[in-house]
ABC transporter ATP-binding protein
Amino acid sequence: MTPAPSGSLLAATGLRKAYGPTTALDGADFSVHPGEIVAVMGPSGSGKSTLLHCLAGIIRPDAGSVRYGARKLSELSDAERSALRRGEFGFVFQFGQLVPELTCVENVALPLRLGGVRRKEAEQQAMRWLERLEVAGVRGKRPGEVSGGQGQRVAVARALVTTPRVIFADEPTGALDSLNGERVMELLTEAARDTRAAVVLVTHEARVAAYSDREVVVRDGRARDMAGARL
Ligand SMILES: Nc1ncnc2c1ncn2[C@@H]1O[C@H](COP(=O)(O)OP(=O)(O)OP(=O)(O)O)[C@@H](O)[C@H]1O
């Protein structure tokens, strides 16, 4: 097991996770620095999403540990872990996961509202992110009334509205055509660079990974830094 590199914001060492007889992670190490964009690549079923879920504290590894700053995720209570996910992490998945009953601006404001911010202030901040993601026009629409590309931009705005320290993105452009996918990646990475958020980006597309500073390949449940990283 290699020790976590110093200066990293989020680091995992020796992660193991099995689902019954299936080994998803088999001693995976990973780290990301503040402001760094890391692409996690690898074949289908190699353990990429499981790694991302362990890093985000969504699932508990069977062995190994995840450190965020000075804190070990395994030593936090469930409430502390959810507070961390709500306050310091942002999530973008392949399919937006927007709340269908809420308008787009209400969706983006939701993480702030859950953190206790008053409606007016939360919606003002949400509008700033919708503008930045070039979808201010859909503010009053519900997710079912907007296009896939618009919905994904709204989902990115919602992930960024709390200015998270780490953004977890799992195939964020997987459901989009290439033009929309590229624009979503541009907007996501620009915003992450401006706020110095770290990004953990799971993708199987080289075109999407090209937005990262460094690529890690997961194979058979182990993560390996690619030689020739672009940093
Ligand atoms: N909830 C689960 N129950 C049982 N097996 C699971 C579960 N989640 C993942 N697995 C298995 O663990 C292994 C790793 O899955 P994971 O989703 O992490 O891979 P992945 O690299 O993200 O795949 P993909 O690129 O296809 O999304 C696979 O063999 C998968 O079938």
